[in-house]
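INFO batch 0412 | record 1 of 1 | parsing
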Amino acid sequence: MQSVNIGVLGLGTVGSGTVTVLRRNIEEIVRRAGRGIEITRAADRTLDKQRDYDVSGIDITTDAFDIVNDPNIHVVVELIGGTGIAKDLVMQAIEQGKHIVTANKALIALHGNELFAKAQEKGVTIAFEAAVAGGIPIIKAMREGLSANRIEWLAGIINGTGNYIMTEMRDKGRDFPDVLAEAQALGYAEADPTFDVEGIDAAHKLTIMASIAFGIPLQFDKAYTEGISQVSQEDVQYAAELGYIIKHLGIAKQTEQGVELRVHPTLIPHRRLIANVDGVMNAVLIKGDAVGPTLYYGAGAGSEATASAVVADIVDVVRALTSDPGNRVPHLAFQANALADTPILPISAVVTSYYLRIHTDDEPGVLADITRILGEQGISIEAILQKQPASHGGTVPVIILTQAVVEKNMDMAIQDIEALTTVKESVMRIRMESLG
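INFO prediction complete | emitting tokens
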């Protein structure tokens, strides 16, 4: 049987890893795929740079469109990233009837609906396992392994940079700016870390997982995102005293009112397995109605870890080359004509518990004023931690854990608390999840 010719667009970190893994494990991969797989062409920005991996026999060009339009290329592997030229290349490849493998989470989250529709029209597949959680096969697990389940919710640590920062703040008592600078020096964070620390990268991935979990179109523009830059060392310490760990989570839930789609710092009980996922590692916890909670853990980035998912997608595409397009696994797990129009809830409609840190004057009656305001909004208190002031008459931090309440009520309560003359700073609010 004729070998399948692969064209790789981009020979950066993931591209080089893909070439390395495919060539190193080619015998095992061919046994699994059922036919030969060969990278025959690749596109890169420069032709003469030093490479520490084997590119012998690969025709390297700077013209990615030349590969896309090559009739001898059967599968295009897009590893350029971004949503500019990458989208044009992928759309052109689909028009040419070529199957696509991509690690581009932004491309799928922002333009996946359009791309999948075009792929269905042309009878080709878009595989994107590597776009979410690096080497963890989370897309396949949800789309195939959990297909018997109604997925109730999922929660994930899906950005290694943010998780590294939160781990260092907890374990070593360091402040956010200090750890961020180190993460940039180590190459974990970009020079502009906004996508990582403000939750945008995680929201791209969460959007994809939520669509597969709940059978809804991709809707990145409706995802709520909140970063970790405002989490202080004292928040980390107070959370620990109360039995919680702060993680930057992506959370998606199916409710009677709609789907929650949110990324933000979250207090979770320290005994949960996902609370102990440290450093740059990723983990996703999924609750199915039949299977219960399942946890998926591994490297969320890196050359060969991500290449593992890219090559696995290549194998899947090769296996399906001769199958009827109508019988292939749907891109978003559900048949295209069966996607639901379930609304995405605004963050104001989300119901969750809260951690509040309030700096107040050390005066009688202050706590009574705060609890009265919470009571007026129907907010029940789970626990209160009041610290001693550094000096008599100074300010004192009051830590409150609440029971679950709709967020719009908490918004009004915080507004009224901050209006008190005895409250000297903005209230720090962190959402809580039991993940039970």
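INFO post-check: The chain has three domains: 4-135+303-338, 138-299, 350-432.
INFO record closed
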